[in-house]
Amino acid sequence: MRIITLANQKGGVGKTTTAINLATALAAIGERVLIVDLDPQGNASTGLGIDKEERTLSSYDVLADKIPLSEVAIQTVVPNLWIVPSTMDLLGVEMEIAALPDRTTRLKSALGDAQDLFSYVLVDCPPSLNLLTINAMAAADSVLVPLQCEFFALEGLSQLLRTVEMVRQTINPQLIIQGIVLTMYDGRNNLANQVVDDVRAHMGDKVYETVIPRNVRISEAPSHGKPAILYDLKCSGSQAYLQLATEVIRRERRLKAA
């Protein structure tokens, strides 16, 4: 089982969209995939058609009460794809577990019990570097960073990389950066092209070749409770996420072989 955490402390960078569509692409080739929604806003859950009434158990219960993942995971509309949904209860979980000795490794323990159930786990983090994100990084094999093609992209990236390094030194020495995926790219925008060049210059082959374009069909899909890949397979955004999934799988195979 490979655990990939999707993290960026900036909101609106395409993190949840990337989690949903990457998970769908992996499930489509036969992998058994679990998304853990650790964002109190619950956008990954909503984007996969999980109504609030269905979320009787959530990632809050996994972290606060140690309820097994197998009891919380819900089958989505996508074959081979499950989700541990999120609720607003997560807003209070940090205070509840802050004084506990295992406060940073509760998700890791929960995922250890699900070792034989899934081949990939994608953890969708909140847009902040808090205890939820630390739990996600402590549990992960690698971190995938969605990065919006905008002016402050590199500034936010350096802060995130420092957090990854801190987790690696204190909690999870095996943690690596799986890759950086550039999102919301508009080729007509000179600034977007400059950001792409700058990020590639700074981060080299950590940056995926695939760039996710700005695409209205990607924006529409969550309101229909579907991944973009199911909502409109032929749109440029869906095609880009399929290419990204191919790159992720290739990179994962290289990491396993190393």
Task: Describe the model.
Pfam families: AAA_31 (PF13614). Involved in chromosome partition. Localize to both poles of the predivisional cell following completion of DNA replication. By secondary structure, this protein is of the alpha/beta class. The protein has one domain: P-loop containing nucleotide triphosphate hydrolases (Rossmann fold). The protein has twelve helices and eight strands. The protein has an eight-stranded mixed β-sheet, sandwiched between helices. The radius of gyration is 17 Å and the shape is globular. The model has no long low-confidence stretch (mean pLDDT 92).
Quick one: overall form? globular
Major sheet summary line: 8 strands, mixed
- In whole angstroms, the N-to-C terminal distance is 16 Å
Corresponding CATH architecture = 3-Layer(aba) Sandwich
Write down the oligomeric state: single chain
DSSP strand tally? 8
Instruction: Tell me the CATH superfamily.
Output: P-loop containing nucleotide triphosphate hydrolases
Helix content: 40-55%
What's the number of structural domains? 1
Output the structural class: alpha/beta
Radius of gyration: 17 Å
The CATH class assignment is Alpha Beta
Order of helices and strands: EHEHHHEEHHEHEHEHEHHH
Mean pLDDT: 92
Protein name: Chromosome partitioning protein ParA
Function: Involved in chromosome partition. Localize to both poles of the predivisional cell following completion of DNA replication.
Domain AAA: 1-176
Organism: Tianweitania populi
